[in-house]
């Protein structure tokens, strides 16, 4: 499953640069996570880096976007392949 940023976000700017897939971006009011790019850091790290650095713990797993570790790894591989083409 992808992660999401809740309304508790304080826009501290620490999560965005930590995302290896560039899935985090500034939305209209708070940071948001593109679930099509979020792999929960699978392929990069053992744990989601945005969750590790968030000072207010406002980045839970998104229950509406469930994915297995295998699906997350496949997404990671697809993102890596697309990045090499560009």
Automatic annotation (TrEMBL):
Q: Which UniProt keywords apply?
A: 4Fe-4S, Electron transport, Iron, Iron-sulfur, Metal-binding, Repeat, Transport
Question: Gene Ontology cellular component?
Answer: cytoplasm
Chain ranges of the 4Fe-4S ferredoxin-type domain: 1-29, 31-64
What are this entry's molecular-function GO terms?
4 iron, 4 sulfur cluster binding; metal ion binding
* Cited SUPFAM superfamilies: 4Fe-4S ferredoxins (SSF54862)
One family name in Pfam for this protein: Fer4_7
Which InterPro entries does the record cross-reference, listed alphabetically? 4Fe4S_Fe-S-bd, 4Fe4S_Fe_S_CS, PSI_iron-sulfur_center, YfhL-like
Respond yes or no to whether keyword Chloroplast is given for this record: no
Protein name, per record: YfhL family 4Fe-4S dicluster ferredoxin
Q: Lineage of the native species?
A: Bacteria, Pseudomonadati, Pseudomonadota, Betaproteobacteria, Burkholderiales
């Amino acid at each position: 499953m992808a992660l999401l940023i809740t309304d508790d976000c304080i826009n501290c700017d620490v999560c965005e640069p930590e995302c290896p897939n560039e899935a985090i971006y500034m939305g209209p009011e708070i940071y948001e996570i593109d679930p099509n790019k979020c792999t929960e850091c699978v392929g990069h790290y053992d744990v989601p880096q945005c969750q590790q650095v968030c000072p207010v713990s406002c980045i839970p797993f998104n229950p509406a976007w469930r994915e297995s570790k295998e699906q997350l790894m496949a997404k990671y591989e697809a993102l890596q392949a697309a990045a090499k083409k560009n």
